């Protein structure tokens, strides 16, 4: 039992946290298939009672799913968890019957899911294969999720490390391994979820574990890494300080949270007593930057910083403190205009939650904008084209521009970082792009974006073929161009007919349009060419409808 719980004769402590483990099902281990994961969402109840063996007991209600819908399952657990403990197993059957009647999830869309007389209103994150908005387009509504764990409480998880958020963002973008240490599972899982959400709308392809324990099947492999061997790209959230010794080859360690589970507030580095809060009489005020040690030099602060770096993460074995240990040289500077807008709830816990919502909105908007601007230079390689006015949509669409990393970096160096990034990055900003190109996140994201762009281009050209006035088009073409157009229409028609056999209803409509276009193109061809074409029985059948 946690020694942090109050020493009353009988006390109860409830908490919510999450984990992620490799999918143990046989289908998930098929050679060549992408590794699958299960997401676990936990309602944990610890009951301290001196009369019980070991001084208490703990039980959990767990939801397992292949879908990382934290915003949904956390809400569901807040209903299901207490019901299971208060009513018993019948509550589980009752809630399960409601869940079984839910419609199929619609990723990226708001949904209203009934539970008895109530309803859960959630906005699901986009699907894993959804590329999200184009890299040059900033989403208009930052409250809409453009990646995983949009509901994570970013501000509460990293309040004591706000200045380090930009370094942490870089570590996530380039796919560096990170060990997140916290006093409790809720705090470490929330911090890992917050880190993953920082890089939206970038597809985060690195393995992450919101709550990692020695019982995880991957622990033995990681523990067996030889000294000097490079740690694989992973983000691990842990509470067991044993990992500081067993996984000491991880180059980036961040400690978050407060040892007191009853306090949701995490004070900034440098300390802030209740008497010196920014709010007066519980009223909210601005977070002061001098409390974040950004404006003011202090010899004591410098000595503490040097001492912290020299001691390394192992100092957490004796006392928990919020800190980041990393040899990574960051490029992005903390944005003081963003930090200045953050609101401090002062001494009033009553308004802490609403202030956190406001602060999360500010931080999410900024990092969404930062990531979108960082990805914007890749836009030309993902840009779709449509047929120009008066041209034939029956020619093959042009290919997307080829991508070569060296040419991209050289072109970027010549053009510059752009107005948004140049204000927020140091002179070594190109190094961040080089690391990103070489890291584990770039290629999966780029391939997905590229495939989406190619698919969108096919859709646009298909739509253009549906809208074209074939007779008007044919009247402008030479005899040779008319023959080429006839062959192209026939090719597209056969492709759509194949699609219609697989049940694509849209293809049936397209087929009817293309059959009419084929006959119209045939009617303007020379008589001898018509006779030659009709000598093919299959083609003759197409032309007869």
Q: Could you tell me the radius of gyration in angstroms?
A: 29 Å
What is the first-to-last residue Cα distance? 77 Å
Tally of separate helices:
19
Share in helix: 40-55%
Structural class: alpha/beta
Q: Unreliable segments (pLDDT under 50, ≥5 consecutive)? A: 262-283, 293-297
Strand order of the largest sheet: 7-8-6-9-11
GO molecular function, one term: guanyl-nucleotide exchange factor activity
Organism: Oryza sativa subsp. indica
Family: Belongs to the DENND6 family.
InterPro entries: DENND6, Tripartite_DENN
Please give a structural write-up.
This protein is α/β, with parallel strands linked by helices and about 550 residues long. Among the domains are: about 10-25 and about 35-125, no CATH class; about 470-545. Helices cover about 40% and strands about 15% of the residues. The protein has helices at about 70-85, 90-100, 155, 165-175, 185-200, 220-225, 245, 300-310, 335-340, 350-375, 405-415, 420-425, 430-440, 440-465, 470-475, 480-500, 505-525, 525-535, 535-545, and strands spanning about 10-20, 35-50, 55-65, 110-115, 120-125, 180, 205-210, 235-240, 250-255, 285, 325, 345. β4 and β5 (about 120-125) form a beta hairpin. α1 packs antiparallel against α2 (about 90-100) and α11 (about 405-415) runs antiparallel to α13 (about 430-440). Mean pLDDT is about 80; it is low at about 260-285 and about 295. InterPro entries: DENND6, Tripartite_DENN. Belongs to the DENND6 family. This is UDENN domain-containing protein. One of its GO terms (cellular component) is recycling endosome. One of its GO terms (molecular function) is guanyl-nucleotide exchange factor activity.
């Amino acid at each position: 039992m946690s020694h942090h719980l109050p020493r009353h004769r009988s006390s109860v402590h409830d908490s919510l946290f999450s984990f992620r483990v490799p999918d143990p099902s046989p289908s998930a281990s098929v050679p060549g298939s992408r590794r699958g994961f299960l997401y676990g969402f936990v309602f944990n109840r610890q009951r301290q009672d001196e009369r019980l063996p070991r001084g208490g007991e703990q039980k959990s209600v767990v939801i397992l799913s292949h879908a990382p819908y934290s915003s949904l399952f956390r809400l569901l657990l807040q209903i299901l968890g207490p019901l299971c403990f208060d009513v018993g197993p019948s509550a589980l059957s009752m809630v399960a019957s409601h869940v079984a009647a839910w419609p199929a999830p619609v990723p990226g869309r708001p949904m209203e899911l009934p539970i008895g007389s109530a309803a859960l209103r959630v906005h699901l994150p986009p699907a894993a294969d959804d590329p999200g908005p184009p890299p040059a387009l900033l989403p208009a509504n930052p409250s809409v999720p453009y990646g995983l764990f949009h509901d994570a409480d970013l501000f509460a998880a990293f309040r004591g490390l706000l200045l380090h958020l930009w370094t942490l963002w870089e570590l996530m973008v380039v796919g560096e391994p990170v060990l997140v240490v916290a006093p409790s599972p809720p705090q470490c899982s929330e911090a890992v979820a917050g880190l993953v959400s920082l890089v939206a709308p970038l597809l985060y392809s690195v393995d992450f574990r919101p709550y990692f324990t020695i019982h995880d099947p991957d622990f033995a492999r990681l523990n067996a890494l030889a000294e000097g061997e490079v740690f694989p790209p992973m983000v691990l959230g842990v509470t067991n300080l044993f990992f500081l010794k067993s996984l000491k080859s991880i180059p980036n360690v961040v400690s978050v949270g407060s040892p007191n589970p009853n306090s949701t507030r995490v004070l900034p580095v440098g300390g802030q007593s209740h008497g010196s809060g920014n709010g007066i009489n519980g009223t909210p005020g601005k977070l002061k930057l001098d409390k974040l040690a950004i404006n003011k030099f202090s010899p004591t602060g410098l000595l503490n910083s040097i001492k912290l770096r020299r001691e390394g993460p192992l100092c957490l074995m004796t006392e928990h403190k919020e800190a980041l240990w990393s040899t990574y040289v960051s490029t992005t500077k903390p944005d003081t205009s963003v930090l200045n807008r953050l609101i401090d709830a002062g001494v009033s816990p009553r308004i802490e939650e609403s202030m956190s919502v406001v602060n999360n909105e500010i931080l999410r908007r900024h990092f969404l904008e930062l990531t979108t601007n960082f990805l914007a230079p890749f836009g030309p390689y993902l840009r779709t084209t449509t047929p120009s006015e008066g041209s034939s949509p029956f020619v093959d669409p042009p290919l997307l521009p080829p991508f070569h990393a060296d040419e991209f970096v050289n072109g970027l160096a010549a053009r510059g970082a752009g107005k948004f990034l140049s204000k927020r990055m140091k002179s070594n900003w190109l190094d961040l792009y080089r690391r990103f190109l070489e890291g584990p996140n770039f290629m999966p994201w780029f391939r997905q974006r590229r495939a989406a762009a190619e698919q969108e281009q096919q859709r646009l050209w298909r739509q253009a073929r549906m809208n074209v006035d074939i007779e008007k088009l044919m009247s402008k073409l030479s005899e040779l161009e008319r023959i080429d157009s006839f062959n192209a229409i026939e090719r597209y028609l056969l492709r759509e007919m194949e699609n219609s056999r697989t049940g694509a209803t849209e293809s049936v409509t397209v087929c009817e349009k293309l059959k009419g276009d084929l006959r119209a193109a045939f009617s303007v061809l020379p008589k001898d060419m018509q006779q030659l074409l009709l000598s093919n029985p299959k083609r003759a059948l197409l032309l007869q409808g």
